[in-house]
């Protein structure tokens, strides 16, 4: 643990660790969060663990199930559809705005990130570079309210489980979809950038739904 983390309340430290584990698919949807087990595994007392679980509940990432207790939430199909629809709206808008206001340095960095993403050696590296690509594009839109709304969507996206980049050839296809967005950005074509980003989100949504159907995950009541 770093010195900076020691200055953060312990409940926040545990909260951030659990968020990372949900994001990295080490805590999958449906996983029970037993206070004693989490406390022993992370090396904290039960009090900050209890606080962290309450924070995850307030985020909508954890729910209390009968006879199970705190459990990482499982989204049903309509919720997944709504989540991706919101992401398409927000990131499509970000692409349109970025086409107008992004500077040449940002565009160059986006091209470089996508090249690294396409050449990623493993799924974890690809997922990290993909997050960086989308985060940089959102920043390039220069809209604080859009960023704030997107953070809410991104947090909920954490509970969808493993990245769709685990699917065969998805990284290659996603890199091509990114490039279509980038071509529109470089041409300062706002409507084209928005349409390309929406198409990218729709493709990711279809992969996600195929994954959910294949694993036949139970729906949340």
Automatic annotation (TrEMBL):
SMART domains: FCD (SM00895), HTH_GNTR (SM00345). Residues 8-75 form the HTH gntR-type domain. InterPro entries: GntR_C, TF_FadR/GntR_C, Tscrpt_reg_HTH_GntR, WH-like_DNA-bd_sf, WH_DNA-bd_sf. It comes from the Bacteria. Keywords: DNA-binding, Transcription, Transcription regulation. Pfam families: FCD, GntR. This is GntR family transcriptional regulator. It comes from Ruixingdingia sedimenti.
